[in-house]
Design goal:
By secondary structure, the chain is α/β, with parallel strands linked by helices. It has two helices and five strands. The protein has a five-stranded mixed β-sheet. Strand 4 and strand 5 form a beta hairpin. The radius of gyration is 12 Å and the shape is globular.
Length: 91
């Protein structure tokens, strides 16, 4: 079960089949910190954005230009301009 953190959602990188649904939840900063406390893989592509996210969440976020592939058991946390989000499959 992988956990990813990103600054945007790239729908082409989410492996959705027609019978599956994707749940997007707006979460609090505390929920985000709890979700990534055991580690995560960064997929933030910009150094400036990675630094901004690091300041917001209090954890170092490194730049990684490689794409993520969100699979059934994975969770994607998105740090947006206005809030925090968690994306997971419903199956």
């Amino acid at each position: 079960m992988a956990k990813y953190i990103a600054d945007r959602v790239d729908l082409d990188l989410i492996l959705i089949k027609p019978v599956e649904e994707l749940r997007v939840e707006k979460i609090t900063l505390e929920e985000l910190k709890h979700g990534i406390k055991e580690g995560f893989e960064s997929h933030v592509r910009c150094e400036k954005k990675a630094n901004e996210i690091s300041e917001k969440i209090g954890v170092e976020v490194k730049v990684n230009e490689n794409p993520y592939k969100l699979d059934k058991e994975d969770t994607l946390y998105v740090v947006g301009n206005e809030g925090f989000y968690r994306l997971k499959y419903i199956y």
